[in-house]
Amino acid sequence: MPRHEPPIPWPELLRMLRSPDPEDRKEGWRKLYHGLRGGRIHMTQQRADKLLSLPPEKDAAVQELIEEAMLLVNAAMGDKAVEEKAEEVISAPFAPPAAEPKVMPQDSLGRWIWLVFLEPSIIAQLTDTRSRDERAVRLIARVLDLFTFPKVMFQDVELGSFSLPVLGTASVDAVCFVGRHCLFFDGPATLADWEWKEARYRFARLDPRQSPSVPWPDPRLHRINEFVGPGIIVPHSAQLEGDQLTDYGLIQRYVAVVNGHPIVVVVCAGCTFVGTYAAAYWAASYLFEKHGAKGLIPHPDRLAWDSSLETVVKVTAQLDPKRVRPPQVRVEPVDVRCDGWAWCLDSFQWERPSPKHAALYYPEGEAPSPASVTEVWLDGKPANLEPDSENRRLLIAACLKARANGPIVSIRGLADDTTIWADGQPRTQQYVRGRLSNLKRYLNRSLELGRGSSDLRLNLEVHAASTEASTRRWMSAPQAEY
Predict the structure, then answer these.
(1) Half-sphere exposure of 434 toward its Cβ, with a 13 Å CA cutoff?
(2) Do 276 and 269 contact (CB within 8 A), yes or no?
(3) pTM of model > 0.85
């Protein structure tokens, strides 16, 4: 267990800052600085006003400490008016209906996520003063009640100091991190064993302690990066436009091997604390709410305890500037994937995934074309197509045309594109439609091919980059960007 230092008494600290002895003042500002960094001092507007009312400092050494400490004071306060208004979003906006007790049917997705917490397990949350994830933890605690889940331990963790408790001969079988789990560890080396190497979504690795003076929300920090291909990411950032707040939450469940022992890891985290609450709501409440006669969301067939899940949810909230009405909140899944399957709410079933992003790579100095593109990635994985096949060149040509002119692509234009076909001769539209039917089995809903239509619709966001440039971006700062 991490060692927790006691909080610093505010009256004692204020006495030191007002002392006529510069050494006392220096020690006081040093304690304030480290107390804010370690989460042992809670900064309020009243306390900040007290600091601002202190007499001007003449000692140069003390002035340097004041500048560093006041940066953290400003960060701890942030834009209070904005954050306090946003905090109203998580007061009780997604409260589940109380008329019906929660149940865990054998085939429900929610049951599969949390069932392992019947064994010795941990729910971890940060104790940093900037963390506002208490309500998210309470949501999870409602599912993991003490009577049913007596072996769950709730652990408060200081920034960068997570460690497994000593349980004698027993071991921890599951850990749930409430908040971005990279902040629970002191750098990439200690985080490595706990990471999901194949994850498509990860948080931007900007340590808030290294950037104390940031707006809220900050697009550099408050975002989830979606991996599309080497050197290409798509950010999903929290935004506040007027009184419209948009945030994203990430839910992951996977197995990590720590000290030779497999541990189920569940992550419920958001770009901001609103997204974290939305992630906890989806995993610990939404999955236990019935969708009319269809019931609860089931899990895919043949799911195992060591299967993996990755979900992104989007939360939008219309804030009332006068705070007369409660915020109008909506949470919707953006991407739900589990063991190679994707959940479709419209059909209420698991389907083959429909790619959302295509990344095309070509040699530097050449223009992208069906012949020059050397690599094709779909949603962060290499496309499973024969390297020099007509289907592959047809997909590349359709992607390039959609990137240039929009999602509607002419089948006649593809038939006349001689760079696609093996003998360099045009094809009939009927022949092309047959090839497109093969691709549709691979792309699913990403390719719409209407019967008798002379056009197709490609529902893919297409990215193109030279192989050399993308490699340079990927190798120069992989940890900072992904």
Answers:
(1) 6
(2) yes
(3) no
